[in-house]
């Protein structure tokens, strides 16, 4: 049974940076559902997109897989001969639990769970690559380098699915969308203290980009088409096709 997220429910005297440690891994399913608007829709659609774009004898990557929600969604939908999913995360606590989740479900599509830094992964013969709320935790220079390596490792016609939190250039619009996101969290049972402390813990480790910045990167790298396919408040998901 999923544990309730109470990590920030009591006052924290010295707030450190947010990390994907054992405490977060224990409550992550509850945390993500109550914190990210539209998360279930995104996970479901990742499976649908994977079904459409996965090719026989190719690799499918879930980079920053956490507990494997996107991996499991893709595995339920993919039905291609000799297609394998490679799920990668650098958090030992996440990888350990991800393996348990993957092994709990039988499927003809094999999954390999790897504990590694996604910046060091070799991407090759890929038909689908997923970055589900992962890129925003890398430095700007690392983001471009990783996306270039993904592009080089994608087959022609392959797809990158990129889910992120966004910032917006218009300050009034940006503040409204932030406020709506906080209202969403309050509606899901988070207190003012939890909303405030979580924001303080994560602001130094997660630096969102604008949608225009993402599109500019895709264009400069050489993707043939790219667009936002889902957005709820300041969260959303994009595709980029080689």
UniProtKB/TrEMBL annotation:
Enzyme Commission number(s) from the entry: 2.1.3.-
GO biological process entries: tRNA wobble uridine modification
Molecular-function GO terms, alphabetical: carboxyl- or carbamoyltransferase activity; S-adenosyl-L-methionine binding
Transmembrane segments: none
Keywords: S-adenosyl-L-methionine, Transferase
Domain (Methyltransferase): residue spans on this chain: 60-158
Positions contributing to S-adenosyl-L-methionine binding: 39, 64-66, 89-90, 117-118, 132, 199
Keyword presence, Cell division: no
Source species, domain of life: Bacteria
InterPro entries associated with the record: CmoA, Methyltransf_25, SAM-dependent_MTases_sf
Catalysed reactions, semicolon-separated: prephenate + S-adenosyl-L-methionine = carboxy-S-adenosyl-L-methionine + 3-phenylpyruvate + H2O
Family to which this protein belongs: Belongs to the class I-like SAM-binding methyltransferase superfamily. Cx-SAM synthase family.
Known role: Catalyzes the conversion of S-adenosyl-L-methionine (SAM) to carboxy-S-adenosyl-L-methionine (Cx-SAM).
Oligomer status and interactors: Homodimer.
Protein name: Carboxy-S-adenosyl-L-methionine synthase
Species of the source: Vibrio algicola
Taxon lineage: Bacteria, Pseudomonadati, Pseudomonadota, Gammaproteobacteria, Vibrionales
UniProt gene name: cmoA
């Amino acid at each position: 049974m999923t544990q309730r997220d109470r990590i920030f429910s009591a006052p924290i005297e010295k707030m450190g940076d947010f990390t994907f440690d054992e405490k977060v891994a224990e409550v992550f399913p509850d945390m993500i559902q109550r914190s990210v608007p539209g998360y279930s829709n995104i996970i479901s659609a990742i499976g649908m997109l994977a079904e459409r774009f996965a090719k026989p004898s190719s690799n499918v990557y879930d980079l920053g897989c956490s507990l494997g929600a996107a991996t499991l969604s893709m595995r339920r939908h993919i039905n291609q001969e000799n297609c394998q999913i490679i799920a990668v995360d650098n958090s030992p606590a996440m990888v350990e639990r991800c393996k348990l989740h993957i092994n709990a479900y039988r499927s003809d599509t094999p999954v390999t769970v790897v504990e590694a830094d996604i910046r060091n992964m070799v991407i090759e013969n890929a038909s689908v690559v997923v970055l589900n709320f992962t890129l925003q935790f890398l430095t700007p220079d690392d983001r471009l380098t990783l996306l270039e390596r993904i592009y080089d490792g994608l087959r022609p016609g392959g797809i990158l699915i990129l889910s992120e939190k966004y910032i917006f250039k218009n300050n009034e619009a940006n503040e409204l969308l932030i406020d709506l996101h906080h209202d969403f969290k309050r509606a899901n049972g988070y207190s003012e203290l939890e909303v405030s402390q979580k924001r303080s813990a994560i602001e130094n480790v997660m630096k969102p980009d604008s949608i225009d910045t993402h599109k500019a990167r895709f264009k400069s790298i050489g993707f043939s088409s790219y667009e936002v396919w889902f957005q709820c408040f300041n969260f959303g998901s994009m595709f980029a096709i080689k």
